Amino acid sequence: MSEPLLTADAHLRRDDAARGDAPRKVVDVAVGVLIGADGRFLLTSRPEGKVYAGYWEFPGGKLEAGESVEAALARELSEELGIAVDPAHVQRWREQMVDYPHALVRLHFCRLYQWQGELQAREGQSWVWAALPVTVSPVLPGALPVLRWLGEEHVPPSA
Ligand SMILES: Nc1nc2c([nH]c(=O)n2[C@@H]2O[C@H](COP(=O)(O)OP(=O)(O)OP(=O)(O)O)[C@@H](O)[C@H]2O)c(=O)[nH]1
Fold first, then answer.
1. Where do the Nudix hydrolase domain residues begin and end (predicted)?
2. Which of 15, 18, 54, 144: CA 20 to 30 A from 123?
3. pTM for this prediction
4. Which residue has its alpha carbon closest to ligand 1 atom 18?
5. CB of 52 closer than 6 angstroms to any ligand 1 atom
6. Which atom of ligand 1 is nearest to the CA of 143?
7. Which CATH architecture has domain 2-152?
8. Pick from 136, 149, 124: which is nearest to 42 by CA?
9. Per-residue pLDDT reduced to its tens digit, 79-88
């Protein structure tokens, strides 16, 4: 399901249209909503050195050239958290475009109930198994809609 465009931190925006810049390229991002047996979901903090460092988000990252969302998510979760994911277990959920001052991103949110291995913070990030309402902050603007969807929709603890 595709959601309406979300504009984040508009006050930081350069006015590209007024400057006559070319339309911005869309960056595709695979994002995992990992749901544990108790129904809690995984949030990770963005590592130092990235935009919005310290903000809480769902783990994932940009697709490489020619990569599917499922394969990109499996790769990112291995690189960031050291867990093994079978792309066949990745369940596409919703798509959200977010217009940030730094990038225009298309977030492919996927649900995931199965993976192998223990979590490791391979990029120095923190993680938390969260429930609603979340107690960590700040949450990345592009992760906020997921919290709303999780609240609106009954997400079974296992599937
Ligand atoms: N992983 C993740 N990214 C998100 C979420 N919400 C959201 O807007 N984004 C945006 O999606 C983009 C993901 O980029 P990233 O920097 O995490 O990806 P990456 O690890 O491939 O980046 P790098 O290799 O350039 O460091 C960022 O612009 C980030 O702000 C989310 O919940 N999870």
1. 24-152
2. 144
3. 0.90
4. 61
5. yes
6. 32
7. Alpha-Beta Complex (3.90)
8. 136
9. 999 999 999 9
